[in-house]
From TrEMBL:
<dbReference type="Pfam" id="PF25788">
    <property type="entry name" value="Ig_Rha78A_N"/>
</dbReference>
<dbReference type="GO" id="GO:0030596">
    <property type="term" value="F:alpha-L-rhamnosidase activity"/>
</dbReference>
<dbReference type="InterPro" id="IPR035396">
    <property type="entry name" value="Bac_rhamnosid6H"/>
</dbReference>
<dbReference type="InterPro" id="IPR008928">
    <property type="entry name" value="6-hairpin_glycosidase_sf"/>
</dbReference>
<feature type="signal peptide">
    <location>
        <begin position="1"/>
        <end position="26"/>
    </location>
</feature>
<feature type="domain" description="Alpha-L-rhamnosidase C-terminal">
    <location>
        <begin position="810"/>
        <end position="884"/>
    </location>
</feature>
<protein>
    <recommendedName>
        <fullName>alpha-L-rhamnosidase</fullName>
        <ecNumber>3.2.1.40</ecNumber>
    </recommendedName>
</protein>
<dbReference type="InterPro" id="IPR013737">
    <property type="entry name" value="Bac_rhamnosid_N"/>
</dbReference>
<dbReference type="InterPro" id="IPR016007">
    <property type="entry name" value="Alpha_rhamnosid"/>
</dbReference>
<dbReference type="Pfam" id="PF17390">
    <property type="entry name" value="Bac_rhamnosid_C"/>
</dbReference>
<feature type="domain" description="Bacterial alpha-L-rhamnosidase N-terminal">
    <location>
        <begin position="178"/>
        <end position="349"/>
    </location>
</feature>
<dbReference type="InterPro" id="IPR035398">
    <property type="entry name" value="Bac_rhamnosid_C"/>
</dbReference>
<dbReference type="InterPro" id="IPR012341">
    <property type="entry name" value="6hp_glycosidase-like_sf"/>
</dbReference>
<dbReference type="InterPro" id="IPR013783">
    <property type="entry name" value="Ig-like_fold"/>
</dbReference>
<dbReference type="Pfam" id="PF05592">
    <property type="entry name" value="Bac_rhamnosid"/>
</dbReference>
<keyword id="KW-0378">Hydrolase</keyword>
<dbReference type="InterPro" id="IPR008902">
    <property type="entry name" value="Rhamnosid_concanavalin"/>
</dbReference>
Amino acid sequence: MRRLLAHISLAVAVMLTCLGNCYADARIGLQNLKCEMLNNPLGIGTNKPRLSWQIISDVRNTRQIAYQIIVASTPEKLTAGQGDLWDSRKVNSAESIMISYAGKPLVSRAVCYWKVRVWTNNGASAWSQPAKWSVGLLNPADWKARWIGCDRGFAWDSVSKFSRLSARYYRRGFSLNKAIKQATAYIVGLGHYELYVNGQIIGDQVLAEAPTDYTQSVKYNTFDVTGYLKQGGNAIGTVLGNGRYFTMRPKYKPKKIKEFGFPKMLLQLEVEYTDGTKQTIISDNSWHFTADGPIRTNNEYDGEEYDATKEFSGWNTPGFDDSQWLKAELVQAPGGKLGAQMNEPIRVMDTVKPVSISQLKKDVWILDMGQNMAGWIQMRVKGTRGDKVTLRYAETLQPNNELYVANLRDAKVTDVYTLKGGAEETWHPVFVYHGFRYVEISGYPGKPELADFEGQVVYDALPTIGSFETSDAIVNKIYHNAYWGILSNYKGMPVDCPQRNERMPWLGDRAVGSLGESFVFANGNFYAKWLDDIAQSQTLVGAIPDVAPAYWNYYSDNMTWPGTYILVADMLYRQFADKAPIEKHYASMKKWMDYMRVKYMKNNIIIKDKYGDWCVPPESLELIHAKDSSLNTDGQLIATAYYYHLSGLMEKFATMLHKPADAQFFAVIKQAVAKAFNDKYFDQPTSKYSNNTVTANLLPLYFGITPSANKQAVFKNIVAKINEAHDHISTGVIGTQWLMRGLAEFGRPDLAWKIASNTTYPSWGYMAERGATTIWELWNGDTANPAMNSRNHIMLLGDLITWFYQDVAGIKTANAGFKQLVMQPAIIKGLDSVNASYQTAYGLIKSSYTNTKSSFNWHVTVPPNSSALVYVPAKNTDAVTEGGKKVSAIKDIKPVKMENGRAILSIGSGDYDFEVKY
């Protein structure tokens, strides 16, 4: 199932588009609310959407007690209050998100109009402004279109290790002889496409559609093109790029790299006339195409070459003579199941102005964007026909100021533009992207100026829903770097890096990282789609790869990397109250757990691991990986601890899904694994696990394997090891995923803060102090072999961003989706202020505090239909005031108890200003 959100309030609805796989949000105002519509979900891939809304109220402690939803087949019926598709009547419920549609069965192409009203403890709302959604093509029989393409290269192409394949241009003219009521286009363009109707580009998406394993699933996009068509002659045109379909390195390593074939397309344009009749235009062999167009080659690793002298004016408009073009060929379907793309499209989401341009040598210039980013350069240029401008991209420079490209491996990352001459020309590539800060410009006619170039930042259109700022400049810089690193690696799937010849969706990078990202970006749809990719990559016997979609054939049978499948499903439930991924993927997750247990569990210990605690800071700054065994953690320990932890999540999932036998099974296996783990790895006299690395002690402690009587002693060992490292990080990818929250949970947020705010090696601050504007792949990325170091990775972030929001700002959910909050900010010496916010499905949460020698002042915002337990640092409850009054005298605040120097208060929705004087 998918959530539907009718966007009513511009500012907030944009933030919430991600909180489910396409869901609708009708914002309900209790006091003179004027609502504005934004963006209706079009062509959704389900007949059972889930509906959500937000309540707007400036009255404290506003709670919903009932709602009524009406869904109608026409706007007129909705206005009249006729819910011919569904009238829920008044439902006594506090739920305002994820309400499953329960009306008449919906069919393909159905258009639904809906509104909602609510009753609260503070009064009833009026009806919301209307919203709508439409259903896509749900059944194979709905598709009349045929797959078209051309399964060969041309004379100017090269299908080899380093392929050069030009874009294919398709067109068809057609006539519409009646007045048009509605027109909808459904398209799949593999690997990427651009769609034009009567010369106008359709949509603002780029690098469409979402990448998948095309033998398993293929995503189509839906567009309302009514306003682009006219009675009489029309034309539709498409351009097909290579993307992930025609692989970046075909014929390179056949056993490693999955190939799909040459670009192909499926298109169906459905037109409804005002008299009720219909006409359908489909892709078939009546279309014409050419590959001899201006895009001469396009490859995600190597770049795009565009020859403007090859442009054919008006090719996508009516009347163009395509008699010299080739006839489109019917080709075999890619094999995957067709379905609507329910995650957000990729778009140009931001722009970056370059900060400097300097001449390197004659005719060669270096452009500095000032920020490592992923996207492309848009260039303005004026010159002579046939002039060629070459743009080559890199993250860093050599000492002589030339580009450093060794870390890009064999990715050529070069765009070439050939001018048509005459007037000023503006260009950027369309079927590739680059990870870069610096651009080498050669062949530019005249002297290039800063104003001639603009960096366009390209990533999935996920609204930014979190903000975080502190009084510490280096921590703010780290957050900035994390923000840019995260967005750079959203490309329809989470990739590891955006610059070299990899860019693969490694599971291990996002195991816990996805949770931190969910505080920054609305990534619910994005990760729900990725879970589908992972499920589709599972083998018949149950194995899950390290990379999914499985573009690379890496089935290493680890616990850690594939375990991300379960961790992400849990994240979607905790952060967005989205239970559907757990329901959908439970059987596949259980199959994988059974596969690993049967194949690799010996005496309740998992004996298989490949990566260990990847990228531990090595003993020498020149090393990439530590060779000192005292720094590395036993891989079997890691694998077994993960099996225990993941079994606990599966027990929870089984309970949620009313599978008591499964829940009991996972509970029993957990106990057996914990006993075997402690018997093998725990040294009772010293309270140390294995070789006493932080990771070896942290995993059993944080996961709950450690016996209660030994927890504090084990934690002391963790602290001692961190102290030995001069309060610096000593964990790799695995340990860092649990480190910061582990320190906070056992009472040492101050030590976590030291680690977070360090500026010496190894630390995130070390990267920032050395000019990083994103996160490096290696802790010592400036001293180890730089050819191995991506300057834009996020795997070493671990749980840092999660800790920033949950513990430093004190924004944590007590259940699913932040209906009940626990707000307990860490009070850390030297941290004078924190200002954070987070947009949830219920509305905006704020936590903003200052801590001085004389007082603690904390502004809290809780959204309507939510509540919170707030933990205010105070000697007693009477020391806490809100708005200048003692909290005990305020009816909307209920003191609960004192605990560990905190006054615990229960509050409902609203804005609060707490103060404690010292």
